[in-house]
Write a structure and sequence with these properties.
The structure is a homodimer of 234-residue chains. Chain A is α+β, with helices and mostly antiparallel strands and 234 residues long. Chain A is built from five helices and eleven strands, in the order ββββαββαβαβααβββ. The longest helix of chain A is centred in the middle third of the chain and has 18 residues. Chain A is elongated. The N terminus of chain A is likely disordered. Chains A and B meet through β1, α1, β5, β6 and α3 of A and β1, α1, β5, β6 and α3 of B. Chain A binds a DNA duplex (30 and 30 nucleotides) through α5.
DNA sequence: GAGAGTTCAGGTCAGTCTGACTCGAACTGC
DNA sequence: GCAGTTCGAGTCAGACTGACCTGAACTCTC
């Protein structure tokens, strides 16, 4: 029979945050911000942003708050990932962590706050993190990579308007493989979710591309997934 | 800044259990077992099986235990569904529930324990449940119905060996639409996951069908999903 | 200012996949 | 022995996808 838990059990909320940034070679890759632990256990190690869940705060709000505290930005996409609760995942008390994952816009991420206790690292080559956080980020990466193929969340990395080449770059960075530009255009247009703004992006040394805007109002064919939030309250 | 939670916050584990059973008309549909609440709040209402998380018990083990306590059976499939933590979902203290969903074998479910405080109901026509449990079951149903289309979890409803017609019945009951027998056979065989046992099922008033066995050892084309468990420890 | 170099936008084509359908095989019940 | 059923295997047309082609439209270089 279940027994009431005692004060040794604590509930935390953490968030895996993803943004696209250029790597050393200038190619866009996934980055994630980490915070340095300022207290025991695991003092000094890098960890996911997060904290204890306040009694009167919603889980998703707590996730958005820690995200803002770390990056100074509001997520364009925020969704619950998984709840990690292994008995031995923290050396001291039993800690159950409700983990969210978030996408933030690339150009805003470029001017994200940085400091001695906040550090952005490439999501695919993580250092050794505190607790089971390496495993958590790997799962979040897996979820992002599978979900980007059957949903329309890629635009969350971009601004209000974008070209098809920019959108394709997002897919290529997330999926880590090149996509045929012509076929990519065809499938994106066929999805019915893109609206032409009527404007072109001038300045490049080639034919100026059309600017598009994402249209979320189009009804999805299948049933819409519950419990996701687009542009949550900041 | 996050503040440490106090004793007003409690962590629970619940499970949505699905099994196939014939309805009044004899057609196989999804059923789920409920338990009657024996204490306040919501005393007397029907609710999901579950309980408080013991400090030294793993989340998944706690889910399997409550499942066994309710149905007397071991699940053939068990996976974390979502964590529900709205501040006002329980009238008294703040309760955060880590919810799992499980599939149990049809013929075993037929001899599941029943009593004044345990009741099986058709999953699509639920009575008014305690707390936010209606919403939770609906989400679990959505997850089952979408996931059965791109994974191989349907066989979890069946025994060791089964005919293609039996497997098709599972899909039809879950998806709530008829499937073409010939096309169903083609795609199932093409998946490479079915092994002929060499035996036939005799006795029916038609050509005897082959018996198949599910082969989990075949490598999946895409990356395998983490954090699912097939046949967890009972 | 003409040509080179680039990507953009739209198209073709072949192979794959999927839903609808057909037909003989193999059993039981009458 | 015939009717009725599902089983198992096959056909066919349309949809979809990856590979590829071509003219359009811009900037940069000479």
């Amino acid at each position: 029979m279940p027994q009431p838990h005692d004060a040794q059990m604590r509930l935390a909320v953490s968030t895996v945050i993803f943004a696209l940034r250029p790597d050393a070679a200038g190619r866009a890759v996934l980055w994630t911000p980490l915070v340095r632990r300022t207290r025991e256990p695991q003092l000094g190690l890098w960890a996911l942003p997060g904290g204890w869940l306040p009694v009167n705060e919603e889980l998703e709000v707590a996730a958005a708050r820690t995200l803002r505290a770390t990056t100074g930005l509001a997520p364009k996409y925020l969704e619950q990932l998984y709840t990690f609760g292994e008995v031995d995942r923290s050396p001291d008390a039993r800690v159950v962590s409700v983990v969210y994952w978030a996408l933030v816009q690339s150009d805003e991420a470029a001017r994200a706050v940085a400091g001695p206790n906040v550090r952005w690292v490439p999501a695919d080559t993580l250092p050794g993190l505190a607790f089971d956080h390496n495993r958590i980020v790997e799962y979040a990466l897996w979820r992002l990579r599978t979900k980007v193929e059957y949903t329309e969340l890629a635009h969350s990395f971009l601004g209000e308007t974008f070209t098809l080449a920019e959108l394709r770059e997002v897919y290529e960075a997330v999926l880590q493989r090149p996509l045929d530009p012509a076929n990519f255009r065809r499938t994106m247009i066929a999805s019915g979710r893109l609206r032409e703004t009527g404007e072109l992006l001038a300045g490049a040394a080639h034919r100026p591309p059309k600017l598009y805007r994402y249209d979320a109002s189009v009804r999805t064919a299948g049933a819409r997934e519950p419990f996701q939030s687009e542009r949550p309250a900041s």
